[in-house]
Amino acid sequence: MRTHPALGAAHDVARAALLEATDESAVGEHLRVVDDGERLATHLFACTGPGYRGWTWAVSLSAGVEDDAVTVNDVVLLPGDDAVVAPAWTPYRDRIKPGDLSPGDVLPPEEDDARLVPAWSAGDHLDTVDRAFAREVGLGRAWVLSLEGRDLAAQRWNDGEQGPDNPMTKQAPGTCDSCGFLVSLAGPLSDRFGVCANGSANDDGRVVALDHGCGAHSGARLSRSAGPQKLPPPVWDTVDVDEL
């Protein structure tokens, strides 16, 4: 589409509008005109302000329908391909990683967190107590893991360093399900995970998959030779007295 003649020739109008918005020292040469549609165009100027290399001034213009009068719509500073810009904003919640929290930090769950459900709706193992009554009088926890939250945790633990798919497990003398240092869990995850209680193990105090393993297994034994190893004669004898 061909740029409207009045808009294409309005270099001076665009520059005058730009100088009203910023200092003259920050405005460089006119770069080009961009057609934005019927009776709309944008004049681009180089930005010479310190710290704004690769940025461009953009002055948006429009032409009147009856008299082709040029009107300034907007003046903005836009980054180019080589411009130095701030990184994309990452919400605070997405920036927090496991281990980042310090004493006093608070990280509440989302209001619609799919990992949590009200205790009365999930039971919270209240087999003999009416759930609605338990919630009303404040028995137990207000929120518990949902099925989705439980599955996410199980998958995360299984895929981590305490899961079965790692070099430590592949070279271990046995798996955690047969280790005397394993503390059993209660609840729906007890058939897949436990807690390591071996103070000498890397996973002490951590949740481990039952098919995980390490060298600190309670059944590990050092292999010993049946007899003393016979050494070869020395290359150079430094024990005996040399005969002259």
From TrEMBL:
Pfam families: DUF3027 (PF11228). Residues 219-244 are annotated as: Disordered. It comes from the Bacteria. This is DUF3027 domain-containing protein.
